[in-house]
Design brief:
The protein has about 130 residues and is α+β, with helices and mostly antiparallel strands. It has a six-stranded mixed β-sheet with strand order 1-6-5-4-3-2.
Length: about 130
């Protein structure tokens, strides 16, 4: 199993701070909501298919679905607020599913953070590559 070759990995607090700095003035309530909405997951705790997806992202594809790499709009508002085009989504294949399933990796390119969702955007976990 190989680890993605993204140049920088940062913790949840740094991601939130980056979001606040890039997004301008943000109230404490907004910052608290973003911090509470995103959990954390160790890279080694991800399903093997998520490792495969992260490897494809690091390689620049090719991806199994045409929707992979498209802009994720964060309509649910779970991830820290960013400008349009900041987030992109990629399918994490679900064995036995005849559809794309509910699992995704969502990347934030400027801070190079990677999020995992197993429930189609209801919750997200920032991937921690250091544990």
């Amino acid at each position: 199993m190989t680890s993605p070759t993204r140049t920088t990995r940062i913790g949840a607090a740094a991601v939130l701070l980056s979001a606040l700095l890039v997004g301008g003035a943000v109230t404490a309530t907004t910052a608290d909501a973003a911090a509470d909405s995103v959990g954390s997951i160790c890279y080694n705790s991800l399903p093997s298919q998520a490792h495969d997806t992260l490897d494809l992202i690091a390689q620049g594809g090719p991806y199994p679905y045409s929707q992979d790499g498209t802009v994720f709009s964060n309509r649910e508002g779970v991830l820290p607020s960013q400008s349009s085009g900041y987030y992109h989504e990629y399918t994490v294949i679900t064995p036995g599913s005849s559809t794309r399933g509910a699992r995704r990796i969502v990347t934030g390119e400027q801070s190079q953070e990677d999020y995992y969702t197993s429930d189609h955007y209801a919750t997200f976990d920032l991937i921690d590559f250091g544990c």
